[in-house]
Design brief:
mainly alpha; two-stranded antiparallel ribbon; 3 helices; 2 strands; about 10% strand
Length: about 90
């Protein structure tokens, strides 16, 4: 889509049809693949093919250690500041 500004601050959007030849050249020059999906069935097939090539893996991470470490650091900093401010030596 192209955004065209009209007098008075109005805008209009102009739909521009895609160029399969240009998209094919982009895919070839970037090392990608070009797929044509003229209907829903072909689009579904393209997504299924891509799904078998691409994958996601869910990895759960334990973040409790980071919070515990931050809390311990804050306790140490607070204790050091308290000792400096009140000049107590333990």
């Amino acid at each position: 889509m192209i955004r065209d500004t009209l007098p008075g601050g109005y805008q209009r959007f102009i739909r521009v049809p895609t160029s399969p030849g240009t998209l094919l050249q982009i895919a070839q020059s970037s090392g990608g693949h070009f797929f044509v999906a003229p209907n829903d069935e072909r689009l579904k097939q393209v997504y299924e093919d891509l799904g078998s090539r691409l994958g996601k893996q869910r990895v759960s991470r334990e973040v409790t250690d980071y919070f515990a470490g931050a809390a311990a650091a804050l306790l140490l900093v607070g204790g050091a500041l308290s000792a400096l401010m009140f000049r107590r030596i333990v």
